[in-house]
Amino acid sequence: MAVELLKDCIKDFHKGYVELRYHQRRSFNVSVKDGKIDTLNNGAVEGVCARVLIDGSWGFASTTVLGKEKIRKMLDNATSLAEASKPVKKRPASLAFIKPCIDKYETPMKRDPRKADKEELVSLVLDVDKTVRDYSKTIVSDTVTFNVVDDNIAFVNSEGSEIRQRIVRCFGNVTVIAREKGNITSAYEGIGEQSGLEILEKTPLMNAGLIAAERASKLVSAKMAPAGYFPVILENRIVGLLAHEAVGHCAEADLVFGGSFLANKIGEKVASEKVTLVDDGRFPNGFGTMMYDDEGVPTQKTVIIEKGVCKSFLHSRETAQHFGVNPTGNARAWTFEFDPIIRMRNTYIEVGDHTLEELAEDIKEGFFLKGGLSGQADFNGEFMFGTQEAIRIKNGKLAEALRGITISGNSFEVLKNVDAIGKDFVMRVGLCGKEQVNYVGMGGASLRTKVLMGGAK
Amino acid sequence: MNFLDFANLAVKTCQKLGADEAEAFVQNEQIVEVVLERAEIQNERFKTHSGIGIRVIKDKKLGFAFASKLSKENVEKACKAAVSLAKVSLPNPEWVSLPVKERLPQTPEGIFDPEIANISGDKMLNFVIRAYNEAKGYDKRVEIDDGKFSAVLNEIAILNSRGVEAQGKTTRIEGYLVCVAKEHGEASSMAYEYDVSTMLNDFFPEKIGRTAAEKALLSLYTKKVEPFTGMVILDSDPAASILLNPVISSVNADNVQRGRSLWSGKIGEKVAAAKLTILDDGLMAKGIGSQSFDFEGAPRQKTPTITRGKLVGFIHNSYTANKEGKKSTGNAYRGSYTTPPTIAASNFVVKAGKKKLEELIAEVEKGIIVRRFSGNVRLESGEFSGIAKQASYIENGEIKYALKETMISGNAFQALNDIVEIGCEIRPTGIRAYTPPILVDNIQIISKQ
């Protein structure tokens, strides 16, 4: 949709601040289950939303019916909502200043998925499915998916910003079920980044399939890892979950406002000096990368913890104004149906210099935890996330593989206990749910710390 | 053009383009919602989801496409996309047909409330303020972190080339609040309270506010307990996520047929304690998942899944039912028009026991009560582990103190057999399971020693 039309719709608006955001999301999905094509799905959703700020009160409305008249009407709706909720507002909102931007961004791509040969993608997914099912006799079922999400976003506001962004994300997942002698287990692995179809050469879906197949067949007869407080190595693929759940959420200024464990901690030591933790809006190919957030603020690399010291929170324009700092470009919306809220982008712990052997050698009895599952953070600093596999470490050596468990801990303690970080940095993808979901990147290198493992007796 | 006109246009267009079978699912969902953030009313939103999902079959090959804008041009474009995808697909030898026309049961009572359908932003705002004030006024130590209240009108129409034609409206109003309690530098964990109803008169925002506040206070001044194996009372929400999630997954016929369910081939066998009876009730009055037809237009019904501890039935959509030459149980589900149907529970209802929560607590010699579970549940194997939130330690039938940094773990399928008692206070949960609190034995209670 033309930025011109959006500009035209707000040119007569003089009641306060207004922004319009057009969002078209085209998606393509191939899903193969047990050798059969389950879904081949292609479609588009599009719409426009308006957000207005009048005398400290927000109003928001969205529509899927496009056209000047409809957009104007939606703008009126948003205006009347802002005016209606004004009397119940206890804390009027105001926005930190940003310089209006006129700019364009497009995901750098070598193979634009719009020109993709769909048959080729289908046969690639079928290939992975076949290899996975042939991996071992214990594998009874699998699901392999590949998805392309192609977002076109146009943003204008009453301060003169005009921003167009096209953000393309490709991602795929493999889920495997293995059964043997009355035992059953599942394993899961995925790929994904912001890029064109060249991702399939960089990180082949087949590799994810093989990791999942190997894990499921290995763990089908394994026992659950034990319960207790142990030294652990978190594998590079799940360290991002630690960055995201143990720290990232509590650095979101809306949670800080509520009194999260990082509140009032700027300038204080909150982690071991080995830990530098960043939320980067421009990480190359990051799943959460965008040049501008959904308030038109240029994104940046925001250092939350530098060598153990808390440095910054993640802000929208509104919270930046409240806290008296510059906006960090963290206001993001899932689609045009949502107003932007504070979200992470690509959150990671900076790389260290240890090899995996070095990380293990000081552990007398502990575990090497691999494969992520879902996680959650509590604002008091207690967090958890699931792992798929726990390899026992005995006297510095890797021993048998056990089924993974959920781990938990208090962010402070777990971060203070990080005493060594590896050099195997990876950036992964995530889907984070906080009132509305959003795509995020999570990264890091394998590291050593202590956690509570929720396992068996 | 109305809903059915668009659906008709889509089916006819697909047939013209050479499809053997075609189905159109048209949806118009209207949502009024109020969002609370940072202890303040942040926003009101009016949202409309409308669009069409088109499923076509050509030589047993499936294609699917969707469009969010309902116009003649867009619908025709989506039809072309669906048919062209079907052409590059592979035949599924197990495909039989889309659902055929059948007589639908009477529309269940209490699934549509015009008062919700036509609710104003002001009225929604008032609900939120009532919940907010109740939580705030309940105790000075309680603070509200965030929340969301939504009123939803969902109108759908389904039409296919086998003569299925179904159309209906449902409503629901739902809300949640997250509260924390603070005193003398102590902060509780996040306490979450949710409720949902199809009728405005059955929705009580004050109750959400009060319960969220109560729960927050229940996790102030926590203490650790030594690890032990013992009894756990799972409140409705954790009971649904820990025990019922794996049950729903295991009675899903698609999982059964694909070897993903430990219960394949076990109809008639004992899978749980005799106290447990679960009915998938697609026709329940005022049920969140109730309607006379499912999301592909097949009749909804009542399907017993576990009766007195015995596995008695699986839930099907037309695809899994056709594979076995059976009738669909009316459990086709879609989250929205953008995806083809899968299988899900309609209203997954646990038969209530006789005892109140206090009576369950009185039965526990040494154990804990868990009001929120923050963890992972492996649906196939039933393994679960995670943090017991707003949990309290129980000894000799009495709640002694709130628990700090405590995890629980176990296996849901084992726990189903270790059910000691089922409570009587049934309530809906986020996964459309209606369940009372459940008391189970032999759960690992874990803490840092």
Textual characterization of the structure:
The complex is a heterodimer of chains A (457) and B (449). Chain A is built from 10 helices and 22 strands. Chain A has 457 residues and is an alpha+beta fold. The model of chain A has no long low-confidence stretch (mean pLDDT 95). With 449 residues, chain B is of the alpha+beta class. In chain B, a hairpin with an 8-residue loop joins strand 13 (332-333) and strand 14. In chain B, helix 1 (3-16) crosses helix 2 (72-88) and helix 4 (121-138) packs parallel to helix 5. The termini of chain B are far apart. At the A-B interface, strand 2, strand 3, helix 2, helix 3 and strand 7 of A face strand 2, strand 3, helix 2, helix 4 and strand 4 of B. Strand 2 of chain A pairs parallel with strand 3 (61-67) of chain B.
Topology overview:
The complex is a heterodimer of chains A (457) and B (449).
Chain A (H helix, E strand, L loop, with lengths): L2 H8 L6 E17 L2 E19 L2 E7 L4 H18 L16 E5 L11 H17 L4 E19 L4 E19 L2 E12 L4 H4 L2 H15 L8 E7 L1 H16 L1 H6 L18 E4 L20 E6 L2 E2 L6 H7 L7 E2 L8 E2 L3 E4 L6 H6 L3 E13 L4 E13 L2 E7 L2 E5 H6 L3 E2 L4 E9 L1 E9 L2 E8 L3
Parallel strand pairs in A: 4-6, 8-15, 14-21
Antiparallel strand pairs in A: 1-2, 1-5, 2-3, 5-6, 6-7, 8-22, 9-10, 9-14, 10-11, 12-13, 15-16, 16-17, 16-18, 18-22, 19-22, 20-21
Helix pairs in contact in A: 1-2, 3-5
Chain B lengths: L2 H14 L4 E17 L2 E19 L2 E7 L4 H17 L25 H4 L3 H18 L3 E19 L4 E19 L2 E2 L3 E7 L7 H13 L4 E2 L4 E7 L1 H16 L1 H5 L20 E4 L20 E6 L2 E2 L6 H6 L8 E2 L8 E2 L4 E3 L6 H7 L2 E5 L1 E6 L5 E7 L2 E4 L2 E6 L2 E6 H6 L1 E4 L4 E2 L4 E3 L2 E10 L2
Parallel strand pairs in B: 8-20, 9-16, 15-24
Antiparallel strand pairs in B: 1-2, 1-4, 2-3, 4-5, 5-6, 5-7, 9-25, 10-11, 10-15, 11-12, 13-14, 16-19, 17-18, 18-21, 19-20, 21-25, 22-25, 23-24
Helix pairs in contact in B: 1-2, 4-5
